[in-house]
Amino acid sequence: MSAFGILGALTATYLIYWIVRAVYRVKFHPLSRFPGSKVAAASAAWYEWYWNFHQPGQLLFEIERQHQKYGPIIRIGPSDLHINDPEVYQDVTRVGSKFVKDAKFYNFITFPGSSIGETDPAAHRIRRQVLTPAFSPQRVQELAPFIKQQVDKLLSRFSEFAKTSTPVDVNAASKAFTMDIISKILFGQQVGCLDDPEFRNDFVRYIKEAFEMGWTATAFPELTKFMLSVPDWLSKAIFPIPIMIFKEVSSYLERQKHTTSVAEPEHMKSVVIDMLVDANSAKGHVVPTPDQLTEEIIMLLSAGNDTTSDALIIGIWQICRHPEVVRRLEDELNMAFPNVRNTDAITYENVRSLPYLNAVIKEILRISNPLPGRLPRLVPQEGYNLYGQHVPAGTALNFSAHLLNRHPSVWTNPKDFDPNRWLGSDTAFLDKYLATFQNGTRQCLGKQYVSDFSIRSAAWLTSPVD
Ligand code: HEM
């Protein structure tokens, strides 16, 4: 048989296999009784490709439409269900739940073994213990003066633009602001995005590109495996951020060798790197290799930059659209801080009890959903009972904060930006159902940073600039 003949036979065999498998998945698979798209049931890859590439970023909204049509459970892949029910979400993500992160998804959008990407609960517990001191309330206090400086810098950049009536790219400015903060937390020094005339920086650009490739990674894992197997020089040319981060981490470690802790102010340190390279940080902690250390820092950089800047951008937009919110915020802040030039008086202790400011921040976090969707968790060995139906072990249950934070069983007029909802007597109930940071043991580690600094920065941002 000629080479063409062999190729033809192989292609035909694969096609037959693909069709038989698709028929099995759609008609006979244990999840076939659940409603949803037949294309998704046959092949998650092509379904995701269509709704994330061909209709860019529309998968979440298509999932929303499918829920409106079929109810709280829909099938979105051969072994994936998407659930839109806050009670099921609470149960799956509660502390002590046996659900674990789905490696099939996380291994391709994160680095396995990193704080976010680790799927083994025991290994994750150790990594979380190692990193927790870097995100403690005490650390937040130590960083406050530095963050205040960045707010001042941002305000003075805004006032420069105002003087020449030049429009500000709020998107770029927010990303620059959060990148300078997160890089300081992670490397002990900022990368200087706020100093760039147009707030540009390669870190921000490369991270954006990496996120854009993230869709491909989950939809076509085999393609991603192939791309990751190319020689180092080629993969680094395609994906340059590891080199940049590796250099930053190495330069921090080098600086540490030559600096005494007395000479180094607390906020110049990277508690993250210090803890990761210390074998005594937690029982069972194995010091990561330089590559693993770089991977952890990349994950933290993306976890801490895009999320916070997206919340900031959407927050600014929502506030600008609601003049009554601006007025009430100004009234509350003017009352609390009559001497507006004394920004030093704006401490966390002084602002955390301001009800309206806190309500605005919570509402921004509800409506912005920086991580809007689909963080799959695997059904444990014994299976799961979903509305009286048995769901087999290994099925991935997916939830989306975008939908949960708008679920009508919890939120009244969910599409409205309404800080007042956080001023009633049921705030504890709303807090419990806010899905922005995840629940349980895999809850966001940066939540304290975000809650604290967003409140302070919002207050600082309302103070005048010379
Ligand atoms: C508005 C800002 C933020 C939002 C909405 C957010 C949201 C989230 C969510 C939803 C998760 C769970 C991800 C999953 O289940 O796969 C998560 C995990 C995580 N986030 Fe955040 N995040 C924010 C800011 C930050 C910041 C500033 C940091 C600090 C660098 C950070 C560090 C982490 C880490 C380390 C994890 C993994 C926690 C674990 O699995 O133990 N996040 N975040």
UniProtKB/TrEMBL annotation:
It comes from the Eukaryota. One of its GO terms (molecular function) is heme binding. InterPro entries: Cyt_P450, Cyt_P450_E_grp-I, Cyt_P450_sf, Cytochrome_P450_monoxygenase. Pfam families: p450. This is Cytochrome P450. Keywords: Heme, Iron, Membrane, Metal-binding, Transmembrane, Transmembrane helix. It comes from Cucurbitaria berberidis CBS 394.84. Heme binds at residue 444. Its cofactor is heme. The chain crosses the membrane at residues 6-24.
